[in-house]
Known about the structure:
By secondary structure, the protein is α/β, with parallel strands linked by helices.
Amino acid sequence: xxxxxxxxxxxxxxxxxxxxxxxxxxxxxxxxxxxxxxxxxxxxxxxxxxxxxxxxxxxxxxxxxxxxxxxxxxxxxxxxxxxxxxxxxxxxxxxxxxxxxxxxxxxxxxxxxxxxxxxxxxxxxxxxxxxxxxxxxxxxxxxxxxxxxxxxxxxxxxxxxxxxxxxxxxxxxxxxxxxxxxxxxxxxxxxxxxxxxxxxxxxxxxxxxxxxxxxxxxxxxxxxxxxxxxxxxxxxxxxxxxxxxxxxxxxxxxxxxxxxxxxxxxxxxxxxxxxxxxxxxxxxxxxxxxxxxxxxxxxxxxxxxxxxxxxxxxxxxxxxxxxxxxxxxxxxxxxxxxxxxxxxxxxxxxxxxxxxxxxxxxxxxxxxxxxxxxxxxxxxxxxxxxxxxxxxxxxxxxxxxxxxxxxxxxxxxxxxxxxxxxxxxxxxxxxxxxxxxxxxxxxxxxxxxxxxxxxxxxxxxxxxxxxxxxxxxxxxxxxxxxxxxxxxxxxxxxxxxxxxxxxxxxxxxxxxxxxxxxxxxxxxxxxxxxxxxxxxxxxxxxxxxxxxxxxxxxxxx
Length: 557
């Protein structure tokens, strides 16, 4: 029995599928979006009413920031940035581990119409310099210990943190230090002298970098409207307006998962965020009891550790207040879900699916019953539409047919920064985002991810592009050819494995190959297994047949 949609379309209420246009519509209630076009995400968040008192807690030091202190600091930092010449459209780099100051920097920059670009503190100087060359920031925020990673650039620097004694003794870098974030936060905001340009919802707010199959990291351009829609989705998903909640922030804030929820989204709800500067399972578990946390976002490998060590954990740590864990990065199987439910019977397990290109929004399971659709990524998020498209023929497919998942909605990016070719191949003229995931949607509207068209390796929730590692391997003087594949691992999800063809007459070792890559990439990108072969299997057009290599590697398991 079909029901009539608000737009006059006949939509199956069970699956959300409309036969007339082969589109799936979200079964969730639509999210309200502000009609005022002259609105930035910082103003939107700060103007929302709530009864929360503490916004952020530093899990290590115990330092707290109230909502009043956060917004006063944002106002002061924005005023200081305006004084030193930061204007609408300028890009500002943020290189920092998780911190209670991370959101203050982001919100201050975006309030001026300037653009925040974040990067992984684990990235090498080479990787960070590539991002700087592409995004062309005019200012950098970083901590003293990370100054050497941007020492090659001429960027003026604002230091985050109070421990200024740990600044490396590098006179070149030190001469570029403009001020400290702490001193900016203490300055009385000067609204009369601030140059406040008109910021609209369509203006760019963030420039986050997402890896692709080409190995070239691409800047994802997201608007204030994208972030506002994301905030509304996060708040409505957890019904956070119904009461104050406390979240443990273990996921990195530089990533869309952390930035969306912890650096912006939860501020709108009055929830408290307990920030861990780096992930350590003992510190995370201690923080749950110490701060009476109710929500714990994580990635599947951490969930595996919680299940495998449940007896020890429940004896040692107080988890009584915890009522939900939120998993993202990969769908969870039956054994893991039921293992968790058995060990932690009072905690609900929820899942989420999203991309940097969709501002972290796409699909979710919002109850244990939904999560028990084993292997699902969930139902479409509010106001999101989907299509399943045959990647070969372009045919748009109905229920229970596998093809590439396309998404459209208010959180979909504007495009890739200064990369028209990549934008055109990912985002069509009607606003459909090609996700690169092979999926099907079942009779009840649940999305199942079958495989990836984009061949990214998922290591502990981080994305590792094989092509980037292959390009580096081919710079080794003793390597003739190489291919990198995902090797399955229960602890980390997948790790990079290399198949290497040696040049004639050398005895290159697997350790030498791994060491060569380790010196050039972040730790999560390191190759952790090597096999030597006579040739790399490829199709007639020269594309590496990774599936053949994956079968070869896993056949011996």
